[in-house]
Automatic annotation (TrEMBL), chain A:
Pfam families: SBP_bac_8. Belongs to the bacterial solute-binding protein 1 family. Keywords: Signal, Transport. It comes from Streptomyces endocoffeicus. This is ABC transporter substrate-binding protein. Residues 1-18 form the signal peptide. SUPFAM superfamilies: Periplasmic binding protein-like II.
UniProtKB/TrEMBL annotation, chain B:
Belongs to the binding-protein-dependent transport system permease family. It holds the Pfam family BPD_transp_1. It is a multi-pass membrane protein. The chain crosses the membrane at residues 37-60, 93-120, 127-149, 161-182, 203-225, 263-287. It comes from Streptomyces endocoffeicus. Keywords: Cell membrane, Membrane, Transmembrane, Transmembrane helix, Transport. Its main location: membrane. Residues 93-282 form the ABC transmembrane type-1 domain. The lineage of its organism: Bacteria, Bacillati, Actinomycetota, Actinomycetes, Kitasatosporales. This is Carbohydrate ABC transporter permease. It is found in: Cell membrane. It comes from the Bacteria. The keyword Cytoplasm does not apply.
């Protein structure tokens, strides 16, 4: 069901887009400027803001707590109703159905790779316009540049990042020691990580050197960390959104090849697509190093009974231009079909959720890195970071990641289908069934077909 | 009686041996029996193991889950508590039961009426009608989602029990199942009932359906399992947490980037139990019904 739902999300996305082709060009979704505080003041009676999200488990509980606090502070004026709408792909599918039906929510928390589609759909008001129309609510300069970069198109912030994660390198120090590697072995570059993984595999019987979940996200990360764009032109960030995918550049070939060599030689551990399986293998001490999301830090801690570290994701390109891409989700304020007061109220909610206090609390409860830079200045935060070196590592990485085209990741509405179609050929190469060059070429042409089809449907 | 009153052990053995000896099967038969038993054991393990793992993992503390323990030393109800804390399973249970009842009842009613019309009365075009019904089985459910969504929303039934069930009140498969079942019934009985003045509805409910009980049960189980396991549609058409089904609830236990397997397994156990009970109680009919639908 899960799989069919995510495929459905992609299919429905196309249908919805073709239904609102004209709107697609009008990226404000609003005829005039974004509504400001005066719109809210003019409202008669309390304004209801529906917030759709795809957060489950502890994340949903933490979000609800923040929403409850907001409601208490704005009693009689704004009431937020947070509604869980399934996992991220389900949320997007439901949202696209809602576009056709003109019943979109006031505020949408949607995942990273829906950014291109939401941008094209033209149903939302850019966060930057709302921030300008509502001075004193949220200073966009406080948002971490890496996150701001990801949710921007043509230099304009489209949505307010809320929960963001980054890829990390987790290291089992015991296994490195057993392999005779000194404690200060440098693991800053991909080459260093690959060399260490090979040593562990050679010297420690039955231990794997490296595990990464078999998800296309990791191919995108290897690309960004090599300092090259995943899509052309310019990752779809400068002019129009992306019109092609690139998987065969020499830098990508080198980085993806290094990891794929680990897998074909047996030093890499294959635990399938689900990141949780990789976490389990790491906790069981079966593998010395793991690429996984910073969002997994909390769970790793729960079950690992050996010393380990969270380190920045290793780069293979120059530090000035390369860096990992953020993941997670952002808040989109919807325009068409929602009155000015409702839009202004939605912005108040988004600004509240991105505020230093909310971000600190949410980060502490969930392990997501706070997207607001001012969180570091809060009295409790330094104490939290001292107790949570893994969280500190993510924040350091956030601060170090340059806001470059490569690190922004690809912006296209076809991203969900591209991600699904790149996976098969890459898996086949990592399993040693297809030569890597052939696999990369196949994946590239499949991805380009997806983009072409999407652009045709969206009238681009 | 004589055996139990016999005082000494050797006599018992002798007596039972004497009784059993003539019935003992030949070596070939015994070997076949053994193979059958082994096969059954293998099947039981294949089917039972995932259920065992689900139940067990739901009861394990996080560290033990990571180590893949199969014979635990420590069990906890924490995962169940966490699952119940995060999702209003109680209310969603009620919704799921109502949805299952309504949807199954609707499907059964429409499909038995359709199957009856396709088998007993003779009318022009019923072969075509049947072909059209069978053809609906080839339409992927995904392609119907948007039209259904627009229809249900247009009727103002979003976020309601009726909205969840409406598109599924009629389904092709149970029609097919019941039609095949009705075809195997003796037509004479129906004709006799008609001659005695029995109307079509009475014929269906008092004569035909009771004769096809196993297949009706099979159709019921099929419909009920499909209704109970529905996920995407109930999610799409509802908004309030308390109008959602347990399957939607379960998905809310999944944390996109760092899932607690224990909690998900605990939730799965909670949702699995009714399905499991339904299958255990109804399996006799299920097997019988499925076996009898094959043409004879």
């Amino acid at each position: 069901m899960r799989r069919s739902a995510s495929v459905l999300a992609a299919v429905v996305a196309l249908t919805a887009l073709s239904g609102c082709g004209d709107n697609g060009k009008n990226d404000t979704g609003n005829s005039g400027r974004a509504p400001g505080p005066e719109a809210l003041k003019a409202a008669k009676g309390p304004v209801t803001v529906t917030l759709w999200h795809g957060l489950g488990d502890t994340n949903a509980v933490a979000l609800q707590k923040l929403v409850d606090r907001f409601n208490a502070q704005h009693r009689g004026k704004i009431e937020v109703k947070a509604v869980y709408q399934g996992q991220y792909p389900d949320v997007l599918a439901k949202y696209t159905a809602a576009i056709r039906d003109k019943s979109t929510p006031s505020l949408l928390l949607s995942y990273d790779i829906s950014t291109g589609f939401l941008h094209d759909a033209g149903q939302t008001v850019p966060a930057q316009d709302l921030a300008e129309a509502n001075p004193g609510t949220l200073s966009l300069d406080d948002i971490r540049p890496a996150a701001r970069n990801y949710y921007s198109a043509q230099g304009k912030l489209m949505a307010v990042p809320f929960n963001t994660s980054m890829p990390m390198l987790y290291v089992n120090d015991d296994l490195l020691k057993k392999a005779g590697l000194p404690a200060n072995t440098p693991l800053n570059t991909l080459d260093q990580v690959v060399a260490a993984a090979k040593t562990v595999h050679r010297k420690v019987p039955k231990a794997g050197g490296l595990v990464q979940p078999f998800d296309t996200w990791w191919i995108e990360q290897l690309t960004a960390a090599a300092g090259v764009p995943y899509c052309g032109p310019d990752n779809g960030r400068k002019g129009s959104t992306a019109s092609s995918v690139k998987l065969t550049s020499p830098q990508q070939r080198k980085a993806i090849g290094a990891v794929s060599d680990l897998y074909t030689s047996g030093a890499g551990l294959d635990t399938g697509e689900d990141g949780s399986n990789a976490v389990t293998a790491f906790q069981q001490g079966k593998v010395a190093m793991m690429f996984n999301s910073s969002g997994a830090a909390g769970k790793i801690k729960e079950g690992a009974d050996f010393p380990y570290r969270a380190l920045p994701y290793p780069l293979s390109g120059p530090a000035a231009t390369s860096g990992p891409v953020v993941g997670g989700a952002a808040l989109w304020v919807n325009g068409p079909g929602h009155g000015a007061a409702e839009q202004a109220a939605s912005w108040q909610v988004a600004a509240f959720l991105a505020s230093p206090a909310s971000q600190e609390e949410f980060s502490r409860a969930t392990g997501y890195a706070p997207i607001n830079k001012k969180v570091e200045a809060l009295p409790g935060q330094q104490k939290t970071l001292a107790a949570r070196p893994d969280l500190k590592a993510v924040i350091d990485q956030f601060n170090k990641t340059p806001a470059t085209t490569a690190a922004a990741g690809c912006l296209t509405g076809a991203m969900p289908t591209v991600r699904a179609d790149v996976l098969g050929p890459i898996q086949s190469a990592f399993a040693g069934k297809t030569p890597l060059d052939t696999a990369l070429k196949n994946a590239e042409s499949a991805a380009n077909r997806d983009i072409d089809r999407y652009r045709e449907q969206a009238g681009q | 009686m004589t055996v139990t009153t016999t005082p000494t052990r050797p006599t018992v053995t002798e007596a039972t041996a004497a009784v059993r000896r003539p019935r003992r099967p030949g070596p070939a038969l015994r070997a076949r029996g053994m193979v059958r038993w082994l096969w059954l054991v293998v099947l039981t393990v294949v089917v039972g193991f995932p259920v065992y793992v689900t139940l067990l993992t739901g009861l394990l503390p996080p560290q033990e889950v990571a180590h893949g323990t199969l014979l635990p030393t420590r069990l906890t109800l924490d995962n169940f508590r966490e699952a119940l804390r995060n999702v209003p399973f109680g209310q969603q249970y009620v919704v799921s039961v109502l949805v299952t009842a309504l949807q199954t009842g609707g499907q059964l009613l429409t499909s038995s009426l359709a199957a009856y019309a396709l088998v007993f009365p003779r009318w022009r075009g019923r072969a075509v009608a049947f072909a059209v019904i069978v053809a609906t089985l080839a339409i992927p459910g995904e392609s119907l989602v948007i039209p259904n969504y627009e229809l249900v929303t247009g009727l103002g039934l979003r976020d309601s029990l009726l909205g969840i069930t409406l598109p599924f009140l009629a389904a092709g498969y149970p029609v097919f199942l019941l039609r095949q079942a009705f075809l195997t019934l003796p037509r004479e009985v129906w004709e006799a009932a008609r001659l005695d003045g029995c109307g079509d509805l009475r014929c269906l409910f008092l004569v035909v359906l009771p004769m096809a009980r196993p297949q009706v049960t099979a159709a019921t189980l099929w419909s009920a399992l499909a209704a109970w396991n529905g996920y995407f549609w109930p999610l799409l058409i509802t908004d309030s947490p308390d109008r959602r089904t347990v399957q939607v609830g379960i998905s809310q236990l999944v944390n996109a980037e760092s899932t607690s397997p224990g909690v998900i397994y605990a939730g799965t156990t909670l949702v699995l139990l009714p399905t499991l009970l339904l299958v255990i109680v109804g399996q006799r009919f299920l097997l019988h019904g499925l076996a009898r639908t094959s043409p004879r």
